[in-house]
Amino acid sequence: MEITIEAWRQATGETAGAFATYRVTGVTPEMSLLEVLDLLNEQLVAAGEPAIAFDSDCREGICGACGVTVDGRPHGPVPNTPSCMQHVNQLPDPTRLRLEPLRANAFPVVCDLAVDRAALDRVIEAGGYVDVKTGQATDADAMLIPHEVAENALDFAGCIGCGACVAACPNGAAHLFAGAKLLHLDRLSYGRQERGLRARAITGQLDHDFGPCSTFGECAQVCPADIDLAAVAAVNREAVRAAFRRKPD
């Protein structure tokens, strides 16, 4: 099987980029998008041309490292599925692909299809953590957490930080990502004590690096972790709550 690929080529973030067209031979229907890129790179290197740079790691849909835009859609045509789990036999037109980086002002291009997603790290650094007392370990049942609360927190903690939600949003917002962090930490007792401080820090960083929420919900359609839109609503709610709290927390 042969696929024609239009791939974005950009040597560095400071240079201009453009699409280049390649023909990849030897593709099989069960291959993932990243495996097709691997095959293309093998052919490019064999021909003495530079390989296409792209991000990947576990290739099991867990790490959040991979992320390309396929025919204008972050990750690819299959909803809520990372790039590494999108396969040739799932593509509407498996004979032609247009690949480019995740497009967002907050994600500058590093090289070709690879982008710098450090803006997401800055959100975590601002408030995506909890302070706990150190010392002797407490009993496992010393802090009781209802099962439904723990499950809800785990649902929001499932965010893998791939950044597809930002690329899908026409405003480049990261509310789904940030809201998931706020909710999964606020649901648990040991994260509640600094709820207000966390909300102020995270929303402040959002305003600095990302755009406003578009309110259309494009982010939830591409999220590999199926994060609920409740996370988006939580961003403004937590910010308003923190603003009206008399005692800082």
UniProtKB/TrEMBL annotation:
Lineage top rank: taxon: Bacteria
Cofactor(s) demanded: [2Fe-2S] cluster; [3Fe-4S] cluster; [4Fe-4S] cluster
PROSITE patterns, per database record: 2FE2S_FER_1 (PS00197), 4FE4S_FER_1 (PS00198), 4FE4S_FER_2 (PS51379)
Domain 4Fe-4S ferredoxin-type: 150-179
One Pfam family, short name: Fer4_7
Keyword hit for Nucleus: no
Entry keyword set: 2Fe-2S, 3Fe-4S, 4Fe-4S, Iron, Iron-sulfur, Metal-binding, Oxidoreductase, Tricarboxylic acid cycle
EC assignment: 1.3.5.1
Family in the record: Belongs to the succinate dehydrogenase/fumarate reductase iron-sulfur protein family.
NCBIfam families xref list: dhsB, PRK07570.1
Protein name: succinate dehydrogenase
Organism: Gordonia caeni
